[in-house]
Design a protein that fits this description.
The protein is an alpha/beta fold. About 35% of the residues lie in helices and about 10% in strands. The strands form two sheets. An eight-stranded mixed β-sheet has the order 3-10-9-6-7-8-4-5. Strand 7, helix 14 and strand 8 form a beta-alpha-beta unit. The radius of gyration is 22 Å and the shape is globular. The protein starts with 5 loop residues before the first helix and ends with a helix.
C-alpha cells in the first residue's frame, strides 16, 4: 500500500525541488496534493514535466505501485503514453513485475478508493435544507439526507475533460436512495461461526453517553503530518482531556485495535485518503490507540495514517464502544471460524498492505463521530468482526449532516440585523 509520507510520494524526481513551494502554498499532505488541478499547477508555475510527474505518481499511488515512480517519471513520458506500452516494454524498460503490470494497466479498479478527480478545495461551502428539529440525534437518524448545494468552483484535471462541482463530487460518497441507514450505532453483521456452533459477541445497541468519553485522558503521540515534519513528537506531550480534541471542530476518532494489523492499517488508509473531503466539511481526523509501542507508531504514521495519533492509556474509548466494558474476541473463534473476518482479511491483503503481529490484538475497535463542543456523539461504529470497517460513505454522510446542523444553529442564533 502506498505511503502517505509526501517524501515517499514525490521520490527523487522533479517534484522534489517543489517541496518548499508546495508547503508554502498549503499542498502539504498527500491526499491534498493528489487533487491539484491544472489551474493550481499553473499558479505555482509547474512545468509540463512536473505536471506529468504528479499525474503519474497519483495514478501509481492509487494502485500501490509508487515504487515505480522514479523510473516511470524519468522516461519523460506522460501517463497515457505509459498506459499504451506493451507488457514486454513495461517489464524490460522499468523492471515492472507481471502482477504489477496487470494492476498498472487496470484503469478501472485501483487498490484504494480514490477521491473524485475533480474534488475542489476552493470556496468549499456546503449547505442543506435547514433542519426542522434541533435534536442532533434525531437529525442524524433520518434516512433520507438533504441535497447538498455548493458554491464551490468546478475544475478539471489535465487528464480529464469533465468539469464537476463539489456537490457532484461529494455525490460519489453520498447515501443513495434506498440505502438502509445503519443508524447512530452501527456494526457489521453477526454471521454464524463454525456452522453455528460459535455465537458472535453481542454489541451495544445504544449510542454511548457523551459523559463516557468527554473526560477520557489521552496523549498525543504524533501531530498531523505535513511536509518535512519529524516522525514523532520529540518532547512528551502532557495528557489532555479528550473533549479538547473536538472543542472547536467536529472529530472522527478511529479506534485502532492494533496498528500492525493488516485490516486496521487498510481501514486507516482508506479513511485518511478522503482527508480533503473531511477538510471541506470542517471535520478533524484522529486515530486512537490503546497500546503505545513507539516502533509500531513509527510504522503506522504517516505511511498508513497522516492524522494525529493519540494514546488512550485507560482504554476509555474502547470501553465506550462496548457499553462500558472492552469488547474482545479470541483469534480462533473470532477469526479462524469467522468467514466475515476472513473476508475482511482478504480485502486488506488485496490492497498490498504489510503487517506484523506485535501487540495486543483481541480488543475490538471502532469509530466515533463527535460534534463540536459538547454537542454529543453523532455516530459510532463497532468492530463486531475482526476487520469490519465503518462504511466510508456513511461516515461522510454523517459528517455532512453534522456540518448542516452546525450551520443551521449558527443561522438561527444570528440577530435579525445580521440576516439583513
Amino acid at each position: 500500500m502506498a505511503s502517505f509520507s509526501i517524501e515517499d510520494f514525490v521520490g527523487n524526481g522533479v517534484l522534489k525541488e517543489l517541496l518548499p513551494k508546495l508547503l508554502e502554498e498549503g499542498w502539504d499532505d498527500v491526499p491534498t496534493l493528489k487533487i491539484m488541478n491544472s489551474e493550481d499547477m499553473d499558479a505555482i508555475n509547474m512545468t509540463q514535466h512536473q505536471k506529468d510527474a504528479l499525474e503519474i505518481r497519483t495514478y501509481l499511488h492509487d494502485r500501490a505501485l509508487i515504487q515505480y515512480g522514479d523510473r516511470l517519471e524519468a522516461s519523460k513520458k506522460c501517463l497515457p503514453e505509459l498506459l499504451n506500452l506493451s507488457t514486454e516494454d513495461l517489464s524490460s524498460q522499468f523492471g515492472m513485475k507481471r502482477g504489477h503490470i496487470a494492476r498498472f494497466t487496470d484503469r478501472i479498479n485501483p487498490c484504494t478508493d480514490p477521491l473524485p478527480k475533480s474534488y475542489g478545495l476552493t470556496a468549499r461551502k456546503i449547505r442543506g435544507t435547514p433542519s426542522k428539529n434541533n435534536s442532533i440525534y434525531k437529525n442524524f437518524a433520518s434516512v433520507n439526507s438533504n441535497k447538498m448545494q455548493s458554491t464551490a468552483k468546478s475544475f478539471r484535471r489535465s487528464s480529464t475533460n469533465n468539469d464537476r462541482t463539489l456537490e457532484e463530487s461529494l455525490a460519489d460518497f453520498k447515501i443513495k436512495d434506498g440505502y438502509v441507514f445503519k443508524g447512530i450505532v452501527a456494526a457489521g453483521p453477526a454471521e454464524p461461526r463454525a456452522c453455528g456452533c460459535v455465537q458472535p459477541p453481542a454489541v451495544v445497541v445504544n449510542v454511548a453517553p457523551y459523559s463516557a468519553i468527554e473526560n477520557i485522558s489521552i496523549q498525543k503521540l504524533t501531530p498531523e503530518y505535513k511536509i518535512g515534519m519529524e516522525r514523532l513528537v520529540k518532547s512528551k506531550t502532557p495528557p489532555m482531556k479528550a473533549s479538547e480534541l473536538w472543542q472547536d471542530k467536529p472529530a472522527v476518532l478511529l479506534c485502532i485495535r492494533r496498528p500492525g494489523c493488516i485490516m486496521c492499517r487498510a481501514e486507516a488508509h482508506q479513511l485518511y485518503a478522503k482527508k480533503p473531503i473531511f477538510d471541506a466539511l470542517g471535520v478533524q481526523l484522529f486515530a486512537v490507540l490503546h497500546e503505545h509501542r513507539e516502533s509500531e507508531v513509527k510504522d503506522f504514521w504517516p505511511r498508513y495514517w497522516g492524522g494525529v495519533v493519540a494514546f488512550d492509556r485507560g482504554m476509555g474509548f474502547f470501553k465506550a464502544l462496548g457499553g462500558g466494558k472492552l469488547l474482545k474476541d479470541k483469534f480462533l473463534s473470532g477469526f479462524v471460524f469467522n468467514p466475515r473476518a476472513i473476508a475482511n482479511y482478504k480485502r486488506a491483503k488485496a490492497m498490498g498492505i504489510d503487517q506484523n503481529f506485535k501487540g495486543e490484538g483481541e480488543i475490538k475497535g471502532g469509530l466515533f463521530i463527535v460534534g463540536r463542543g459538547g454537542t454529543g456523539i453523532a455516530y459510532q461504529f463497532i468492530e463486531r468482526n475482526f476487520g469490519d470497517w465503518a462504511p466510508v460513505a456513511e461516515v461522510i454522510e454523517i459528517c455532512a449532516r453534522l456540518q448542516n446542523h452546525q450551520q443551521d444553529h449558527e443561522a438561527s442564533s444570528k440577530s435579525p440585523q445580521e440576516h439583513e
